[in-house]
User: Fold this.
Amino acid sequence: MQAFERKVRESFGRQAFMATIGAQMTAVGVGSVEIRISFNSSLTQQNSFIHAGVITSILDSACGYAALSVAPEEAEVLSVEFKVNLLAPAVGESFIARAQVKRAGRTLTVCTADAFALNQGSEKLVATMQATIMNMVPRE
Amino acid sequence: MQAFERKVRESFGRQAFMATIGAQMTAVGVGSVEIRISFNSSLTQQNSFIHAGVITSILDSACGYAALSVAPEEAEVLSVEFKVNLLAPAVGESFIARAQVKRAGRTLTVCTADAFALNQGSEKLVATMQATIMNMVPRE
Amino acid sequence: MQAFERKVRESFGRQAFMATIGAQMTAVGVGSVEIRISFNSSLTQQNSFIHAGVITSILDSACGYAALSVAPEEAEVLSVEFKVNLLAPAVGESFIARAQVKRAGRTLTVCTADAFALNQGSEKLVATMQATIMNMVPRE
Amino acid sequence: MQAFERKVRESFGRQAFMATIGAQMTAVGVGSVEIRISFNSSLTQQNSFIHAGVITSILDSACGYAALSVAPEEAEVLSVEFKVNLLAPAVGESFIARAQVKRAGRTLTVCTADAFALNQGSEKLVATMQATIMNMVPRE
Assistant:
C-alpha cells in the first residue's frame, strides 16, 4: 500500500461517524475515493428513503479523502463548503459515493462526487456534489 | 398545537435517522424550525469534531420542515439541493440548526439555516446553509 | 437543423446580454451546449482578468440551453439556482463554456458546465458550475 | 473617507465590467457593500428580464468588496466560489445588491448577499447569494 492510501485509510478509520452509518472505503486512488454504505432502516427519512444527510456524509468524506490523496504529505484537509443536488430518491440495497479531484491547488482543492443507489447489480445516480476542500499545513 | 406544527412534528417523528443521531425538534413556527443534537462521540470525524455530514443533516431537516410549515396542507416536501459553508470546527456540548423560509413559491421554497455550537451557554456559528425545497402535491 | 436546435438558437438570439458581451453559441447537441466569448477589456475585473460574473453568465446560459435542448417541445426554461467554483484566473484570448445535462426530470433538470480559457490553442479549466433549471410549461 | 472605503472604491473603479453594465457602488461599510444598476435593455435575457449573470455579477462584486472591507490592509481578495438562488424574475427600474460578511477568517471570508428589484420605490427580493472569498496576501 502506498503512503497516500495509508494516510487516507488511517484518517477514514478515525471517523467514528462513518462506522456509525456502516460506511466502508472501497477504493482509493490518486485523486479518487469510493465509499459505500448498505441500506439500514436507522438511516432513513420520513418516506423510508436514505436521509439526504447520510448521502451527503459519504459524498463529503469521499471528496475530502480524494483531496487528501493528492495533498502534500504533511497536510490535513478540511471541508470548506459543498453543494449537493438530490437527483432521485435514495432507494436501494446499497449506496456508493465516488469522488474525484477536479482541481488541486496549493491551498484549495475542488472535487466533484456522484452518489449511486445499487439494486440487483444496477446503478442509479441519486445525488451529485461539488466541494471545496482546504489543505491545512501545520505551521512551524 | 396548530395543524402545520402537528404535520411538521409528525413527519419529523418518522425520520429514523434523526433519532439515530439523537436529534430533537426544539421549536416550530410559521416558516421556521429549530433542531438540536447533543455531542456524541459516535458522530465525529477524524479530529473528534462533529462530522460535517451530521451538521448538514440537521440543517437539511430544519430547512425541509421550515418549508413544510408554510406549504399547502396536502403537500409534502423534498430537498432539491443545498449548499453548506463550514465556518468553524463543530466543537461543543450541543448543536442547534435554525432554519427560516427566505421565499416560498408555488413549487419551490428557498430556505436559509445557521448551525451553532453551544458551550457553557454561549453560541458560536459553525455552518450556514442555503437550500431549495420542492412541494410535492399528490396528483388527482 | 432539428427542432430542438432551432428553438435553442432562436432563444439565445433574443438574449441581448449575450450580444453585449460578444457571446456566440458555437455548438448545440441533445443535452449539450457550447458558448464562447473573446477577451475584451470591457469585461474585466480589477486585475484585468475576465470578471467572474461574465464567466458565470456564459456558464448559466450554456446550462439553461442544454436543459432546453431536452425539454418538452412547449416548455421554456428558467434558472432556479447555480453554484460556481472559480478555479483559475480567467486569462486568455477567448473563453468557452461547455454544459451538459446531468439529469433531466419532468420539472427540474440538473446540468454541469466547465469554462475554459484558450491561449494559443491550449485550453485551461477556469471555472465549473452545477445548476438547477426548471421547465416552465404554459398552462392551458 | 476611511482607508478601507478608499481601498474598496479604488478597486471597484478598476472593474471595467462594472462600468460596462452601469453599476455604481452606492454604500460601503465595515463588512457591507451595496451596488446598483439601472435597467438597460442591453442586459436582458430572452424574456426581457435582466440576465441572471448580470444580477450575479453585482452580487459577486458586492460580496468581494464586503470581504475586502474587513481584510488585512495589504490583502487583495479573490472569489473562490458562490451559489445563487434566483427567486423572482429580475423586472424593475433598477436593481440593488446588498452584501454582508457572515464570517471573516484569516484565509477565507464567507458573505451573503441579496438582490432586489426596485419599482416605484418598492423593493422586491429577486436573488440571494452565499459566497466564499479568499484573502490574497503578497508573499515577502
